[in-house]
Amino acid sequence: MKIIVNGETHDVAVAPDMPLLWVLRDELKLTGTKYGCGIAQCGACTVHIDGVAVRSCQMPIGDLEGEVTTIEGLGQPETLHAVQEAWIKHQVAQCGYCQSGQIMAAASFLDTNPDPNDEDIDRAMSANLCRCGTYPRIREAVKTAASSLRGA
Amino acid sequence: MRKSIILAMALLSGVALASEQHGLVVNTPPEGSVTREAGLQAWERIHAVVSHPRCANCHTDERNLPMWSGSEYADAQPHGMNVHAGESRIGSETLACQACHVTSKRPNTVPHAAPHAGMDWRLAPVEFVWFGVDGPAICAQIRDPERNGGRDGAGLVEHITHDAEEKGFITWGFNPGAGREPAPGGMQAHLEDMIRWVAADMPCPED
């Protein structure tokens, strides 16, 4: 079946119930998206489908409708997404394992809510777990990214 | 719409009508053939379904919080992860329900995974509140077109057959999979109870 990931069309020969996460990592070798729990409890595997955050471990490839964006397609080293820039500015990452999911969740959230308050941020980001406890820095980075995206 | 008209005609004509729709057998009894008592008994079974956590957990009030309650939980509590469905009732203000509860007609097979259905996951409209509401109040709401999505009796029956077609939330409630306790009865029994209740002119316990 054909899927579009980061603007490129791929033809993958896999079972239709294979989760998108498996396709991304094992078939397309896009390993920036992480496997955490496999049951939508941690958020590490968050990608965008038509711009909306989705836990890729939950999406059977046969039910996928829309274009997928992974952390590899959100920005490039020379043209980072505003969320990625903010992550560097605030030195959010510690071990880093959850961070691609955190960044994808934040980018999708700011697309629909460009001027969030702390409560909004906590509601949007609480389903992305970080065992290093970088939550205060995540919240500050989301605010910085929001400000940057608004052109402030 | 066509099915609604056929069902309404059957209800009015006094002729029994049977059809098969999306794996369900729709047997419409002749008008006047279901007593008020039988209708109330059907309502009690409908109430056992709609008040079950599989259904009521997402029929919550204007606080827009899905609930976690039922035999799988020691105490009723709002959905974990600080989830808030917002006024949109689909979470679009902060985190869409669909971020974890994807839209898929495939069976739910993985314990503890976010459940999915063939419809986009969401809270029911706020006027359909069932969680923490007593039976007579739910009964009054379900038969009130102002508060049930504009449905008459035929519309309530079609709501179930349409759900079967889409493998939506009613279908999921009876077959949640992955170790979750299903709503009592089954899709066919629920459909038959709804048909009986409608044929008895939708009686409520406190009428």
Helix percentage of chain B: 25-40%
Which bin fits the share of residues in helices of chain A? 25-40%
Task: For the largest sheet of chain B, list the strands in their spatial order.
Answer: 1-2
Q: What does the main sheet of chain A amount to?
A: 3 strands, antiparallel
Which structural class do the helices and strands of chain B define? Answer: mainly alpha
Q: From the alpha-carbon coordinates, what is the Rg of chain B to the nearest angstrom?
A: 17 Å
Q: What is the total domain count of chain A?
A: 2
Instruction: Give Rg of chain A in angstroms.
Output: 15 Å
Question: Keyphrases for this structure?
Answer:
heterodimer; A: 152 residues; alpha+beta; Ubiquitin-like (UB roll); DNA polymerase, domain 1; three-stranded antiparallel β-sheet; two-stranded antiparallel sheet; 6 helices; 5 strands; 38% helix; B: 207 residues; mainly alpha; 7 helices; 35% helix; 7% strand; globular
Describe the protein's architecture and organization.
The complex is a heterodimer of chains A (152) and B (207). With 152 residues, chain A is of the alpha+beta class. In chain A, 38% of the residues lie in helices and 12% in strands. Chain A contains six helices and five strands; from the N terminus they run E-E-H-E-E-E-H-H-H-H-H. In chain A, helix 3 (82-89) crosses helix 6. The relative contact order of chain A is 0.16. In chain B, the strands form two sheets. In chain B, strands 1-2 form a two-stranded antiparallel ribbon. A two-stranded antiparallel sheet of chain B has the order 3-4. Chain B contains seven helices and four strands; from the N terminus they run H-E-E-H-H-E-E-H-H-H-H. Chain B has 207 residues and is mainly α. Chain B has one domain (2-199). The interface between A and B is medium-sized, with 27 and 24 residues.
